[in-house]
């Protein structure tokens, strides 16, 4: 907890005005007006409710708070200390007391047993109340010697006395047990018990576990407006118990976060500090719970996530497959990774390669690699070996998730039989797979220069094609057909009919904006003998981003009509400039992902020089107004263009 945060709260507690009556005003600058709920809702004139401003760094929050009103300064010194965990021997014998009352078959037996007690303790009172409730639920008529009216009157009077005994108990657990019971007899009194527990929280009489239990009760019953407005007043209790929060109970506090509203940020700040202090001691199950809460509250903090990454790398050796699956899935859903997480996964895969049993774990790790574009050789090769050895046992519905990442990450496994074995298995399971998965897998093969001719032939059969009605899938099949026609000489294509018109391709708005800003620089580089055209989609091919050129540098006499560009094209006379966005690269920021690599390859095959410009580099140089640097970067890139 930050020093500023603690100072704000402690100064507030020290400066609360002592009042002689319930109508006195608070002049403390931290209070934003007396929004009292005490008289109307709590009916407790010893406490008033208001708000407080808390500063935490540059952030200021307004939080609800309960204040005790004192008539005499001596009362403050008489506030009781924290109750001991075991207040009386009676609480230890509660089960015996409860068993004794359960032997009572009638209400009069309960009343008789109460009169025999020399002193009615809170647990005796609670056991008696529970038995009265149980007997009330019995529907069979009871034969009694006294009139029902007398029984009802006696029950009401005795119940009132028992409840007064319970509410005065030092044993807060007894009150918490009453709150949790579903007894209809106790429902009218639960708000009073709630007020009593809240007052004890303010007086710092509860343990941290009791505060957590009470808060969970409030959250679970937040449909009641009384409980709902009380939840965000519990933050004071957690701040008071800050020193008791450690690796053994931090997950309990995280589980409370989804139920908080105005005080959520305050508790998060506290827990972030504790997570930083105790991360290396946190158990695996606790960290799983914490990650689950991160997902529920849509939490994002690079500092806390980095701590989780360090914990993950430190504890990777003790994780079993199910636990690793759970954690890596949650990190993927949180959209977070770092070098620590990647290193931990790599270690696990290298040392447990022969022991991995779950294909679900392999799918999760490959999904993690694809989402974060992690082209880790060790991880991908281990996953590839698992697929080759267990391909027959992997359900057809999982094959796309297992295979597509390799093409997307532009990674060819070391095992040269990888694609051959996968294709054979796909042919066996062909009828069990949908065309979307099959087409994605075929395309991923092409990304890494492998050509699944047998698979494509089955997909391109007229009988199979007639079943396809989805236009996106048809466009993907046409891309496969075009790619194989360009790359594979032995492919007898194109086999699919061409579109009579091309659907326009929209240029990424980021690329479009940066090109507009640096247009003059481009013109100064290409000279008067050449012309530049922005956003050119090559005709005679499928309508796909693969054949979209961000800037085409061509001779002036080429004209603006590209419909017959191939007849005018002279090898290496046309230059295709591609602007690669950050998400066009793998995590190393050097290797292009499969779709972009195929884009470069195809433009080369069509006789063009290909220039690749990094969007991040262009944006940085433009933002710094470094025109000489920008011109030098573009000019050198054009001079070093990849020729066909």
UniProtKB/TrEMBL annotation:
It comes from the Eukaryota. The keyword Acetylation does not apply. Residues 575-636 form the RAP domain. InterPro entries: FAST_Leu-rich, RAP. GO terms for molecular function: kinase activity. The keyword Disulfide bond does not apply. Keywords: Kinase, Transferase. GO terms for biological process: regulation of mitochondrial mRNA stability. This is Fas-activated serine/threonine kinase. It comes from Papilio machaon (Old World swallowtail butterfly). The lineage of its organism: Eukaryota, Metazoa, Ecdysozoa, Arthropoda, Hexapoda.
């Amino acid at each position: 907890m930050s020093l500023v945060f603690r100072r704000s709260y402690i100064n507030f507690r020290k400066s609360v005005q002592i009042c002689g009556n319930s109508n006195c005003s608070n002049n403390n600058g931290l209070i934003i007006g007396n929004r009292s709920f005490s008289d109307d809702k709590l009916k407790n004139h010893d406490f008033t409710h208001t708000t407080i401003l808390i500063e935490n760094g540059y952030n200021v929050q307004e939080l609800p708070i309960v204040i005790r009103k004192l008539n005499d300064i001596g009362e403050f010194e008489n506030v009781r200390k924290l109750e001991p965990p075991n207040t009386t021997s009676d609480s230890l014998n509660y089960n015996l007391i409860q068993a004794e009352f359960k032997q009572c078959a009638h209400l009069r037996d309960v009343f008789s047993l109460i009169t025999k007690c020399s002193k009615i303790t809170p647990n005796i009172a609670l056991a008696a109340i529970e038995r009265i409730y149980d007997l009330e639920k019995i529907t069979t008529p009871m034969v009694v010697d006294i009139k029902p009216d007398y029984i009802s009157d006696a029950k009401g009077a005795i119940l009132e006395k028992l409840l007064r005994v319970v509410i005065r108990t030092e044993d807060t657990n007894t009150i918490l047990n009453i709150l949790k019971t579903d007894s209809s007899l106790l429902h009218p009194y639960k708000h009073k018990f709630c007020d009593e527990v809240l007052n004890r929280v303010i007086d710092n009489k509860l343990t941290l576990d009791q505060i957590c239990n009470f808060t969970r009760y409030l959250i679970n019953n937040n449909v009641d407006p009384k409980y709902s407005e009380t939840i965000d007043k519990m933050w004071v209790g957690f701040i008071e118990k800050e020193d008791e929060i450690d690796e053994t109970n931090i997950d309990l506090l995280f589980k409370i976060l989804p139920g908080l509203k105005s005080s959520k940020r305050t508790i998060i700040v506290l827990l972030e500090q504790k997570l930083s202090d105790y991360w290396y001691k946190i158990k695996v199950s606790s960290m799983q719970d914490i990650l689950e809460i991160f997902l529920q509250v849509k939490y994002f903090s690079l500092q806390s996530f980095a701590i989780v990454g360090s914990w993950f790398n430190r504890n990777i050796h003790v994780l079993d497959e199910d636990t690793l699956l759970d954690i890596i899935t949650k990190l993927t859903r949180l959209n977070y990774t770092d070098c620590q997480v990647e290193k931990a996964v790599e270690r696990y895969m290298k040392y447990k390669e022969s022991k991995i049993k779950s294909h679900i774990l392999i799918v999760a790790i490959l999904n993690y690699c694809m989402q974060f574009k992690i082209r880790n050789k060790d991880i991908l090769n281990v996953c590839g070996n698992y697929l080759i050895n267990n391909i027959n046992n992997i359900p057809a519905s999982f094959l796309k998730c297992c295979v597509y990442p390799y093409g997307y990450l532009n990674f060819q496994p070391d095992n040269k039989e990888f694609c051959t074995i996968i294709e054979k298995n796909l042919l066996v399971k062909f009828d069990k797979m949908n065309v979307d998965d099959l087409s994605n897998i075929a395309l991923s093969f092409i990304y890494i220069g492998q050509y699944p001719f047998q698979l494509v032939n089955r997909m391109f059969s007229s009988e199979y094609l007639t079943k396809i009605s989805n236009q996106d899938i048809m466009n993907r099949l046409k891309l496969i057909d075009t790619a194989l026609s360009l790359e594979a000489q032995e492919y007898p294509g194109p086999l699919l009919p061409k579109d009579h018109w091309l659907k326009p391709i929209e240029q990424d708005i980021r690329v479009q904006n940066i090109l507009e800003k640096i247009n003059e620089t481009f013109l100064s580089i290409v000279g008067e003998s050449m012309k530049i055209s922005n956003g050119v989609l090559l005709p005679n091919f499928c309508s796909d981003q693969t054949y979209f050129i961000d800037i085409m540098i061509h001779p002036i006499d080429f004209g603006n009509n590209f419909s017959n560009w191939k007849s005018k094209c002279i090898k290496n006379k046309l230059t295709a400039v591609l602007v690669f966005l950050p998400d066009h690269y793998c995590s190393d920021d050097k290797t292009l992902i499969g779709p972009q690599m195929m884009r470069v390859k195809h433009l080369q095959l069509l006789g063009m020089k290909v220039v690749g410009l990094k969007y991040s580099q262009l944006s940085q140089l433009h933002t710094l107004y470094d025109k000489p640097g920008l011109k030098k970067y573009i000019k050198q890139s054009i001079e070093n263009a990849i020729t066909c």
